[in-house]
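Per reviewer request, we include the raw input and output of the structure prediction for the construct analysed in the revised manuscript.
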Amino acid sequence: MSAIKTTYSSAFTQLLRCIKPVLTMMATLGILAFLLLSVPAMAGGVKTIVDSSGQARPVAKPFTRIISLYSAHTENLCSLGAEKQLIGISLSDDYPPAITGRPRFSYREDPEKFIALQPDLVLVRPMIERSYPQFIDKLKQAGIAVISLQPNSVKEMFGYWHSLGILTGREAQAQEMITVFQTRLKVVQDGLKNVPDDQRPKVYFQSIHKKMKTFAPESIGTFVLKEAGGINIAADAEQVRATNIAVFGKEQLLSRGPEIDIFLAQHGRMNPVDIDTILKEPGFAAIKAVREGQVFLIEEALVSRPTLRILNGIEQLNALFYRRHDKNLQSSL
């Protein structure tokens, strides 16, 4: 009996020696799993946004000293109620009027000017990121977060607003912006429910006169046109890279001239055109809208800038297309 006990004890000891490393490893994995699951809480709930390059950017806490180098960023930050977090704006920013007195900055300037103001975030757009990499690198080397954002469609615009909400700690306000947008848009959509396609005006929407460019099919400008109740005569235009702009050559435009009821052009820094220039453009007499004086300009910010004000653009164009007076539109009449 004693021999059996000794043998059993020896076997049990050997078994413990064999499984001890396994038990140790399981315990270690359990601790690691606990730590990994606890990271978000321990880190204060780190959130993530995706920038224009597709890179995931963690946001541990809201930024409080922001320089914006894009008019849409500036306007949207103010719509979110984050104007107190905005310490600098771009040279071209003009809206809302309350922030136009803020310090002005340009990506062409010495980065030291930015660094001296001690921002924790500089918001840019892809064009700046592509064209001025040394400027971006210098800011990053100084410990400043640089994030590039720019939506090219309304679907992307909602995500863009949400990203700005995360960056500023104003996610609820971002959702409110989306709700306001959808509610006001529905009013226009309801008014068009009973208007068949053959009673909607065919419109050419010019984005850049000198280059004979229109808006890309999925762009915000095209969305504005469609939701206002117009039919895009250049729906097959070819998009230029990943931008809002599309190629629609003069020959192609003139070939559809007899169908165009309204010639519409955005007006602003991107397209500083006037109605007289459009009317006198060689060959444009082939366009029905030009012959009949149906040429109109609309403010660029209302159709190209991804902000709540594109609702104003939709409402103004809807009034024009269905002949309701709107003093904000400039006409050749």
